[in-house]
Amino acid sequence: MTGPVVDIKDLRVTFATDGGDVAAVKGVSLQLQPGEVLAIVGESGSGKTVTARTVLGLLPETALTRGAVVLRSKDGGTTSDVVTLRGGDLRSVRGRDAAMVFQEPGSVLNPVYPVGWQIAEGLRAHGDVSKKEAREVAVDVLRRVGIPDPEERVDHYPHQFSGGQKQRIVIAQALALNAGVIIADEPTTALDVTVQAEILDLLRRCRDEFGASIVLITHNMGVVADLADRVAVMYQGELVETADVATLFADPQQEYTRTLLGSVPKLGQGAARARDRAARRPEGWAEQPAVVTARDLRIVYPGRFRKPDFTAVDGVDFTIAPGEVLGLVGESGSGKSTIGRAIAGLTPVSGGSLTVLGTEVAGIKEKAFRPVRRRIGFVFQDPATSFNPLLTIADAVAEPLVVHGQAGDTDGARGRVDELLEAVQLPKAFGDRFPHELSGGQRQRASLARALALQPELLIADEPTSALDVSVQARVLELFDELQREFGFAALFISHDLAVVDLLADRIAVLHHGRLVEEGTGERVLGAPQDPYTQRLLASLPVPDPAEQAQRRARWAALR
Amino acid sequence: MSRRRTSRRTWRSLPVVHQLRQSVGLQRGMLVTGLVLTGVLVLAAVFAPLLAPYGYGQLRDADGAFGAQQPPSGDHLLGTTVGGYDVLSRVIYGSRTAVFVIVVAIVLSIVAGVLLGLVSGYLGGWLDRVLVVIADAVYAFPSLLLAIVAAIVISGGQSSLVGGVLAAAISITVVFIPQYFRVVRAETVRIKSEAFVESARVVGTGTWRIMTRHVLRNATRSLPLIVTLNASEAILTLAGLGFLGFGIQPTAAAEWGFDLNRSISDVTSGIWWTSIFPGAAIVLTVLGLTLVGESLNDLADPRLRSRRRAADVPPPADVAVTPGGGLAAGTEGGTP
């Protein structure tokens, strides 16, 4: 084989938007060699997805593409410039030469057709195959991506598979046509860490066993370290740096790459901080009454349409002492957000006891709970939706003060609002802006300001950084740490990311299927995990260091 | 949507003005045509006494009676009706009645519909279920039949200007309330679960304050659209009532539907001017309002909105790319 399978030459993409033209990609040149995994990394808006989508000609009509994207078929027989292809020619290239694996496996599969039919659809589009042949190929490819009982499962519908299995099926779709290039757009972002490790393993096999070249788009440096051979770093539509993976992590050339790598939280960073905090605590701290005490806490969502009730939280015990940060870790569906919502009075408690700031929450009436609310702050996951789009930031931050009668209106609270904005390192002038005029990180800082407006004794942060880019996340986490030290509030920090929790929490609690499997200081839980689930969780977490990740991968394989 | 809208709320971000600035090509043509037709209607209504040569109920001037069914002439530009009224004057004055009915009907139905929708959607429970059933029941009723019943109940079928207009307006209101109710209720149910409402609840904000400050204004975004579409429907209902004889007496006000009703017999005898002009007035008004409504509908949906093509030359580098901003919207819009 000679030459690259994908050769992107001076690619420029401009989008027509309501706010004028936006240049998304500004002259990018990239090459993908046969049998290579090329990772394109960058923050949101860096143009990484747009660049990868041009390989399949998947851009919307509002996009104007210049440059060339030369795609070579797997046998090396034909080459075609995707940018100039239209209609039928483009369709014949799609799937045969290059296939796509999307971020959200749940929405990529059509819910009304069996998965086998959907795999066969690609085969039918590229040639005359009989039903029987198509089925055989589908069964075969399902077996090879690791779906058990493929002969039977081929007739099942997407909802009968788990999230990880759905992503396997999407990859199977790409493999069925034996595509030379697989574009994987954030293939594991929507999946849990333990599932992510399996999908990354499968992608690696795609390359080794099927001989596919992979373009991996991701913002997760751990994923890059795990899978990629070569890395292209993008920033604001331009290529910052391209290097093979070991060189990039060991010796990044550009300032931006260094910053990006430096912002990635790593396991074990938090131990020193936690010790430091523990040392500064006054005498008799442990004897103070706890801010939150949960005893055999149960939260059940009633089943609808004759389905059985769903137990989200099943007999959990924990306490949060004043000024202490408890990190709550778990995968999706583990009940971690439900616990946070129950403490804030957003979800009713079904059984056991939950005492928040001296008030028993189980069975409490909204009116009786309202005085407690002013002592609790809440930071939501998605900063885009947690602000009323029609109120200015000052209005939103002043809202708690107005509601609790500490100010008549926004103007009356403005002095305090400015102080709060300053505390979260936002310029005062931002108070007059509307939420959509702030970036995600700025909005999340404003969200912190709002949560702190009433000087709460307890702050609940529900995945506050999971919607943010790594570099932004690093700043928000640092700010959280500073504010916690300054204001001394107790906090429940909920996250799926062990490294993030490790950075901030004094103690870590690990949830699995609504049960608390392990609890202790960060050092103990992460350093010497006792529970097999915690061990698996830790082993699945890819670390942003190729050499170390290779060792971890071996350990993970042994643990499986 | 657009993240780079003007930072302060100026006249540019007012409902219709904002969409007009946003539109291009055919959609802009439709919107402008609709706005011009609607503007003509409003101007005619406001300046009717100045524009119309005679009064709507005037049968004679200094030279004596006009005479019935006179063809268009210098004295009567569009001729006279079977009852001896001036057609041009009645067409112009008819716009007043139309605008009056639209305004009253829409104000009444918006106030009631939005309030009920908000309460029903936010509080939920049995109140919600009862209101939804009632709304569905009203919805299932033929609207003109309902309007006739309401007209009879309110005014006995015949009445003065205010009585007739109110009868028409209230009957239209009854039909429209469920529409506003449904739209606002659906939006409220959606917004209720948004993080910013939960955030207000966590703070301890009272129910009424959440409803008015956080939910109401976010739930009313699509209302301008329904208003324009309903306005055209209101005119048709009013004309239908007038045509069926449940309208306003010619001496009380000019009403296009009533005039059409009176001109039925004229059509067969070759007297075209008594029916064409009131009919054309109805058609143009409805067309204008529908065009405005439809183009607002298309413009509100990023997938239906047409945009200028991107210029071939890349814009200067200082154009700030908001992280994930326009870019994300662009790629999502293109995914089928």
UniProtKB/TrEMBL annotation, chain A:
Keyword Membrane applies: yes
Where does the protein end up? Cell membrane
Q: Which SMART domains match?
A: AAA (SM00382)
Classify the source by domain of life.
Answer: Bacteria
GO molecular function per UniProt: ATP binding; ATP hydrolysis activity
What is the recorded membrane topology of this protein?
A: Peripheral membrane protein
Residues covered by the ABC transporter domain:
8-261, 292-538
Recorded hits in Gene3D superfamilies, A to Z, give: P-loop containing nucleotide triphosphate hydrolases (3.40.50.300)
Query: What GO biological process term is on the record, naming one?
Result: peptide transport
Q: Could you confirm whether the keyword Cell membrane appears in this record? A: yes
Extract one GO cellular component term from the record: plasma membrane
What the record says about family reads: Belongs to the ABC transporter superfamily.
Write down what this protein is called. Answer: Peptide/nickel transport system ATP-binding protein
Species this chain originates from: Klenkia taihuensis
From TrEMBL, chain B:
In the record, biological process GO terms are: transmembrane transport
Localisation: Cell membrane
Please name the Pfam families in this protein's record: BPD_transp_1, OppC_N
- Topology with respect to the bilayer: Multi-pass membrane protein
Q: InterPro entries, from UniProt? A: BP-dependent_transpt_permease, MetI-like, MetI-like_sf, OppC_N
- What does UniProt give as GO cellular component? plasma membrane
Q: Where is this region: Disordered?
A: 307-336
Which keywords does this Swiss-Prot/TrEMBL entry list? Answer: Cell membrane, Membrane, Transmembrane, Transmembrane helix, Transport
Domain of life where this protein originates: Bacteria
Which protein family is named in the record?
Belongs to the binding-protein-dependent transport system permease family.
What protein name applies here?
Peptide/nickel transport system permease protein
Q: Which organism is it from?
A: Klenkia taihuensis
